[in-house]
Amino acid sequence: MESVGLLTGGPWIYAVIAASVLLDVFLPVLPSGVLVITAATAAAGAATGQVSPHEVPDILALIFCATTASVLGDLVAYRLAWRGGARLDRAIARSRRLTGAQERLGAALARGGGTLVVLARFAPAGRSVVSLGAGAAHRRVRDFLPWSALAGLSWAAYSVALGYYGAQWLGTTWLATGVSALALFGAGAAAAFVMRRQPAPAP
Fold first, then answer.
1. Crossing angle for the helix pair 115-122 and 96-110, nearest 10 degrees?
2. 125: which DSSP letter?
3. pLDDT, tens digit, for every residue of 45-72?
């Protein structure tokens, strides 16, 4: 608990989490999910009376911080892809994966549903593909933004819940953080599998 507290005990942890979540749309290797889980694990220590509530992050503030950074990151990628022009269009056309994801996203948004956007937030690099694909295809921001917000909130709440309740069951230890992180990666693998199972619409 002491080592976790040293990492998450200051207000700067919110800035670190926000920066990591915002930037991982461009650098999916950033451990933003692990950071959120670690902070939530530390927060569980206050609930069990092991540490003062003032020494650990606040649960609601964590969720708000991670959600806001997720949506802002999506919008930055969306706007960059929107303005990317013919060069970005050619790059997407060369990638079968990006082209298929763009087609699925367009069909989903056209039907008024954005389940794909929510699933992609959990899948490895899925958030990047969807945000860039939506911008490159010039999808309306009013169609994309609400689903991006729901995706960010779902991901943030799930990550915080894993860290918090994992610590409740296993104690505020690195074991709890590791098990919670594995559960997050498992959800990402499941989301990627579901996304691959969805057929691309016919031309």
1. 140
2. T
3. 765 555 555 566 788 999 999 999 999 9
- Pure H helices in the chain: 2-8, 12-23, 32-47, 59-82, 85-94, 96-110, 115-122, 126-136, 141-170, 174-197
Tokens for 175, please give them: 């074991």
114: three-class secondary structure by DSSP:
coil
Q: Which amino acid is at 28?
A: P
List pLDDT tens digits, range 2-25: 544 545 556 788 889 999 999 988
Instruction: Report CA-CA distances (Å) from 40 to 12, 28, 63, 99, 168.
Output: 15, 21, 9, 37, 11
Structure token digits, residue 176:
């709890």
Return all residues near 17 (Cβ < 8 A) that are at least 6 apart.
32, 35, 36, 39, 62, 65, 66, 69
- Comparing CA positions, the residue from 117, 124, 23, 129 lying closest to residue 70 is 23
Which of 82-86, 129-133, 187-191 shows the lowest mean pLDDT across its residues? 82-86
Nearest 5°: the CA angle 184, 75, 96 is: 70
CA dist 133 to 86, 99, 104, 139, Å? 13, 8, 10, 9
Encoded tokens for 89: 């269009």
- In three-state secondary structure terms, 30 is coil
